[in-house]
Amino acid sequence: MITITYEIGGNSIIYINGQHVSTMPAQGAFEATDLFFGHKEETKLFSALFRGFRIYDRALTAEEVLHNFNVDAKTETPDEPTPEEPAVENYLVPQSQWVITGHNTQLNDTTNPMVAAGGVESAALLHQGSIALGEVDLSKYSKVVVMWGCDNSDVTINHYNANANNRIMLLNAEMSMVMSPAEGTIIAGGTYELKGWKVTAFEIDLTGIDYNGPVWLAIDALPGTFALVSSVEFVA
Fold first, then answer.
1. Is the whole-model pTM more than 0.90?
2. 20 to 30 A Cα–Cα from 159, which one of 13, 86, 146, 212?
3. With the C-alpha atoms ordered 90, 96, 102, 104, is the resulting torsion angle positive or negative?
4. Could you tell me if 138 and 186 are in contact, meaning their C-beta atoms sit under 8 angstroms apart?
5. Annotated domain spans of the chain
6. Under a CB-based contact definition with an 8 Å cutoff, are residues 57 and 50 in contact?
7. What's the rounded mean pLDDT across residues 210-227?
């Protein structure tokens, strides 16, 4: 960056990259035709590339010259701004996207007494089945909250006591009647409790889970156990 200041009755000063290099007496006023870039002799070639010009109606101070250089030096090779990652929001999987699979597994509304007992408008009734939730990038979320309920009948209690696991799980494949609960398990929550049909929250910690793909929700329970699920929400 070359800067030349010219003050009638004073000095003409040359700066290069904001640093003073030369001072000489100003020769007085000059005409517009006296201002040019290149060589005054037309026969001498001048090959250069100019990025920009600043022309002031006064002589700049040394501080102002240095300030201009510092500003231009930063814009010469600007730092590319780092694009901000969009904030991850909670994802409540719409019931309209659920695919209910398995034996005696279906989506019901309050006309079903079990759903009505759960205190919700609609819910999936699970019996040896699963809910396909679609593609989910689990690495973006801290946990999944499942609103669910299960009856407290003698049959269910006996099954609960006889089962070694009693967990709510996320799978990478559909749950079938002959499929072992361990197969396809991405993550399983801790042991659930039997609290009756009234739906309550069950949380599964997703910390450290690096999985992006199709996800199914399933209840680890012995055949004959019915459960209902009213919502599944992935929490950022």
1. no
2. 146
3. positive
4. yes
5. 2-76, 91-235
6. no
7. 87
